[in-house]
Design goal:
- With 392 residues, this protein is an alpha+beta fold.
- It is built from 19 helices and seven strands.
- The radius of gyration is 31 Å and the shape is elongated.
- 27% of the residues are buried.
């Protein structure tokens, strides 16, 4: 075995059979070590010198070149793809900690706009231009039968940036390519929604419900949204076990709540006959409304009701919730009580110390609200809960 040196720690070992192997030799705490860099001709002399310089840099930074090189090799042979990085964020943050609104819809966006095009790319070798192609495709509506979606492009960018930051903090994968991108560079932010139903529009809807126009399911979900100001998913996913008729309380469990907190609402006496009828009718199904319909199905049907009522300006089911909050404030209900009824999380220092459910005040507010709704339809008809209580 013959050994030659090239300088700066690079050496060559030549076996009796003529096999040439490059090595880097160094010392740590007085102990001599060596690393096999590769064999000639698979590794040229120039490449061996480059590897030597890399090893010397590791050594200068206080790292053992053998360990640092092994870690670098392991990483290079198992690169993290863009799809793996985004899915890592979904599974370990958006889904488990419920910090992202509708992680399923976020995944659907990634499946449609990101994964088919750059999902298989090595994240750390992907530059901004690759991402921009995806965002521009969304914004300009390049996809077949897809409308231009500037707002959607901004939403996808925002989710991607959050996902990559999460991966960096967790040391799962490193990329800074989206750090300098802002929503305005690829699309636009969603406009703040301020649509509420006017008194006459709300009356039209209530009369339509009482006259049994439209499907049974949509009539009842609209009525419950109007009465409780809840999120659509809270009612859509509501099970019979959530309704305590003895204590007259509706408890939304954490898994059905957007902010992951339990929500407790009083059941107004005017609504008790309706709730009793629904529970009796749908006891075997387990769901208050008899079935679990998808979010898309319910929101799609809800988005067409304004046309059926000949309303000029579009409104959605979520606008009923905004209407509830606005009207209660107009009726001088205490701000904190309204926030509790709609299920908003209490922020700031108060959120750490104030765990009151405001049940008495909430019950009075809902009682007054139901009276207001009854008189809105007709001072004498008093049909809001009586007609619907038949649950037919």
């Amino acid at each position: 075995m013959e050994e030659l040196t090239d300088g700066k720690g690079l050496g060559v070992r030549i076996s009796k059979t003529g096999h040439i192997k490059f090595q880097f030799r160094y010392k740590i705490k007085g102990k001599s070590k060596r690393i096999d860099l590769g064999s000639y001709p698979d590794l040229s002399l120039k490449q061996a010198r480059d590897h030597t310089q890399e090893c010397r840099a590791w050594l200068a930074n206080g790292s053992d070149p053998k360990i640092a090189r092994a870690m670098a090799f392991d990483k290079s042979f198992t690169p993290i793809t863009i799809e793996e990085a985004l899915e890592y964020w979904i599974e370990n943050y958006a889904r488990q900690k419920r910090k992202a609104k509708g992680f399923k819809s976020v995944r659907a966006q990634f499946n449609k706009h990101i994964y088919p095009y750059i999902g298989h790319f090595d994240l750390e070798k992907t530059d901004m231009s690759h991402w921009l192609v995806c965002f521009d495709r969304i914004c300009n509506g390049i996809e077949e039968r897809q409308k231009p979606g500037a707002v959607a492009a901004g939403q996808v960018l925002q989710n991607c940036k959050q996902a990559l930051k999460f991966c960096r903090v967790r040391r799962y994968a490193i990329s800074h390519e989206l750090d300098d991108l802002e929503i305005g560079f690829v699309g636009k932010k969603a406009n703040k929604k301020d649509r509420i139903l006017s008194t006459s529009e709300l009356r039209d809807l209530l009369l339509s419900i009482n006259q049994r126009k439209g499907s049974w399911y949509m009539r009842h979900i609209c009525l419950l949204l109007i009465i409780f100001g809840a999120r659509t998913q809270e009612i859509r996913r509501s099970t019979v076990e959530e309704w305590d008729l003895v204590n007259q309380l509706w408890t939304v469990p954490k898994e059905h709540s957007k902010n992951g907190a339990k929500i407790i609402r009083p059941i107004p006496p005017q609504v008790m006959p309706l709730i009793k009828a629904l529970l009796k009718r749908n006891a075997k199904t387990g769901y208050l409304l008899g079935e679990l319909r998808s979010d898309c199905s319910v929101s799609g049907s809800g988005g067409r009701i304004y046309q059926q009522l000949n309303h000029n300006d579009k409104w959605t089911l979520h606008d009923l919730r905004r209407t509830f909050s606005t009207k209660l404030n107009d009726l001088d209900v205490e701000d904190r009580v309204v926030e509790v009824l709609v299920g908003h999380a209490i922020t700031g220092s108060e959120g750490h110390y104030n765990y009151s459910r405001y049940l008495n005040k909430s019950a009075k507010a809902l009682d007054m609200w139901c009276d207001w709704l009854e008189h809105l339809v007709s001072p004498i008809d008093n049909v809001v809960e009586i007609e619907m209580a038949k649950a037919s």
